[in-house]
Description:
By secondary structure, the protein is α+β, with helices and mostly antiparallel strands. Helices cover 40% and strands 14% of the residues. The two termini are 19 Å apart.
Amino acid sequence: MAITEKGEEISEIISEVEKQPRRSGDSPLKGAYESHQVPADDSLQRTFTGELNIYYDAVIAYIRDAESILIFGPGEAKDELKKRLEENNLGGRVVGIETVDKMTDRQIAAKIRQQFAESR
């Protein structure tokens, strides 16, 4: 969510990242695995990391011009995003990182308004 002179602007950047990449190939219940049909764990991890990098790059491109950045959410991604912002010389714009549960758009807007009202 961006707060501008025109008001609040909500944008959603959809992640195509699979939480836990699955091995392809036969199921143990349907038949035997053959080693050449099952990708190596490091290959799955590289794919997962590559997809994450694409996602974080999209998020950073969207917020690059922000004066202040508040990061919040339920998982570990917020810390990874902060790290990526620091790598892109944007870490100084991060005004806070908070752990919160899933929120509606209205709750997000209220949280952001409250944060920036307090910081002024």
